[in-house]
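Hi support team,

I'm filing this because I wasn't sure whether my run with uridine-5'-diphosphate-glucuronic acid finished correctly. The job status page said complete, but I'd like someone to confirm that the output block is well-formed before I use it downstream. Pasting the exact inputs I used:
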Amino acid sequence: MDIAIVGTGYVGLTTGACIATLGHVVTCIDIDKAKIAGLEQGKLPLYETGLDELVTSERRSGRLRFTADLAAGVRGAGIVFVSVGTPPDLRGDVDLSYVRKAADDIAPHLSKGAVLVLKSTVPAGTARQIKRQISALGRNNPVASNPEFLREGSAVADFFNPDRIVVGADEPAAARSLASLYAPFEKHGVPVVVTSTVDAELAKYASNAFLALKIGFINEVADLCEQTGADVASVAACVGHDKRIGSAFLAPGPGFGGSCFPKDTRAFIATGRRFGANQTLVESLIRSNELRKRKLAGRILDHLARGSVVAVLGTAFKAGTDDMREAAALTIVPLLQQQGVKVKAHDPQCRTVGAKMLPAVSWHDDPYAAVADADAVVVLTEWPDYRTLDWRRIAASMRGRTLFDYRNLLEASAVAAHGLRYIGLGRPVSQPPAAAKNGSASTAGDWHDIAAAPY
Ligand code: UGA
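And here is everything the job wrote out:
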């Protein structure tokens, strides 16, 4: 079957390249001509593990094509995916203007029987609205919903190893056509849930909201562990072995970020309000997540004297991506700077984007250069490379002694053995055996309570 994908961000491009490997001819379409020209030469507009190789091999096979000509790309396709952006609007709801515009542009070129499939994350009822929209243009093609559950950084692996595939269709022919695309997965035992479009749309938000709730919950449990002397890793392991709960997404961190959870949880509560079914748990989660970033910034400030230097290791919202959207660094770093702290930073992928988003930071390509002469080091992203840094060398080059590991990435006792005071999340503070150096004074109480400030 010929497939068209409108919108070549990380979801559209990953989906396109992966579907091509199933033997379909896929045309990826974008209005950004420079992006398409780059893709035609094998240049990807983003970093995504394994995608470069996949795009190269599928382009060579002739199954993956790129065009900025929407009409030509859509014509003849049996399934047309829409995977354009759905940014938040000013009220925290979803701005559907790109989806609506794409539907308007696609409609005149849809072949008879072709299914228009919304892959973009859209609120409950959107597919039905788009169906009415294209009907008004004289097209009776079905509009379906096929939400994606791809994580940035492991999107390719997630595509090939899904926990389930959701096919939302209000017309049996559309359900059959979309389900046939995923038949190879069903053959291998992957559940393909065929349901209505509104169920599929809501399922996407409910999934992201629930995962975000797990993170918010373990973050608050980590706070309690710190006060009671418990270790959150051990608590999470005990809790996660319960199959009804599961061990995934129980790693404490500096608050969830990225292009999905913050935006989707806000949109979820906006939908709840619109339909008079308030999502109070998720409302509270959003507040707790914002407050967490402020509190963790306050914790750093509590250990520093004014005019200190902090080295931040990792600014991406998580490892494996160059994405800094809604990353904890975007809240924590400015809060430090507002209090006169000088911030140096390193991230293996975010230097270019980071220099734009946090211009007052001194950026370094080498983590050892970033930490030199720092009063404190803060690990904000769980890049595996940070685990194998030479922490003895780092301790020797720092001016101060404190390491904040806001991802619980490092072995506390090993780091402390090099003379650093290790402060993780929800685990006991590890002190160096003997204070080798004592460069940075603790000035607890010297800073005003930034955690209490409104966000
Ligand atoms: C998320 C979902 O996991 C995907 O299933 C979904 O398809 C995607 O959103 C989307 O809606 O497009 P993603 O935003 O790429 O994927 O990232 P996650 O791996 O889910 O992480 C989100 C945030 O939670 C990150 O800031 C991460 O560091 C944080 N996190 C995650 C934790 O703090 N603790 C955890 O245990 C897991």
